Fold this sequence. Notes:
This protein is α/β, with parallel strands linked by helices and 389 residues long. The longest helix has 29 residues. It starts with 8 loop residues before the first strand and ends in an 8-residue tail after the last helix.
Amino acid sequence: MSKSANTINTVYVIIPTYNEVENIRKIISALFDVNKKLVAWNINILVVDDNSPDGTADLVRTMQTEFGKDTLKLVSGNKAGLGKAYLHGFNEVLHTYKSEAIVMMDADFSHNPKSIPILLNAIENGADYVIGSRYVQGGSIPGNWPLMRVVNSRVANFVAHALSGIDKGILDTTGGFKAIRTTTLKKIDLNSINASGYVFQVSLLHAFASRSANIAEVPISFTDRERGTSKMKSRDIIEFIYRVYKLNPQSRIATLIRFGIVGACGSLINLMILTTLVRFTHISILFADLVAIEVSIITNFYMNHFYTFKLREGQFRNYDRANKVFVKLLKFNAGAIGGALISFTAFYVFHQLLHVNYVVADLYAILLATGWNYWVSTKIVWKIVDART
Ligand code: GDD
Ligand code: MN
């Protein structure tokens, strides 16, 4: 079927490949088959291959003589991860070709080319970013997925929501099958996306969401790859957690994580001082403990000031700047003494009055005191003044 030139939009389907020689011919043919049925769009393909040792790129070059270099394009790079491959592809399309939309998809038939018209339809209806979603009504993951993969995917999604702050209404944050509007993509600073691997999917979504782009989800059935193997490695998981954390370091959970790290360091410092004093001086153990407590309160304060809450000063206009560091230290110190009292009282109540096992009682006490210290830190010492008052 011929397409009338004045109503046609161009869509680039970007396919990153690493050792996909078994899939690439079939997926390219399938895409051009879909193209025949598309009325308002014309598909061009860009394969971003990272010098796959299995000769994926050579096969694409052979196919270029079949389909033409204008419709089937190839760029090669060194293997630097899925995210870097997409960035390479985006830059190529944005700077070299005219296009109205970009489709991102895997080479391995996990993403059915037949769903592309549905993705593009959503673009036509005004969406800037369309997720082929496994988790909206009508979408699905493979029925035979081992429990481990189901859990992995769910946990990744949960972590992405909790840390990045992406709207919980968006159900599939990690999916890799999507269509994006080129004009909106152009407004995004691609250099600010540092993701190398799979977390790129979440970073890109976050970039669109923070520009209030119109985000849509359409159901897809995700199928297992037919040939070859997944390229996901454990370093991808570590990068995933680190990058989604970095997307929104002001989130409550990110702050809590830093606060927890500082607390753990503080406990170590406390222990070190106590043991050192007991070993090398003749002061009483009780006095040594008091010194250890006070020193760790002060070191905790500085770690929180320069680490946990550091960004507050730069990022929040209504951050409390009236109090100088020394005043903050006094407040924190008073709060920590309050925390110690709470801890002691709680221990007394749980253990002496309620006859809870002493270790369990101490855990409750630590939990309560930590909660109190966190409250004092976020609401008093490093407070954000309520914008409404
Ligand atoms: N150029 C290049 N460089 N391509 C790569 C690289 C790389 O370093 N790593 C992976 N790819 C290509 C693969 O060849 C494949 O075409 C596609 O990227 C996806 O890789 P898979 O290894 O098949 O990913 P997956 O099946 O584990 O993960 C899929 O599902 C995830 C969500 O559950 C992908 O769609 C992910 O993007 C998605 O987050
Ligand atoms: Mn795959």
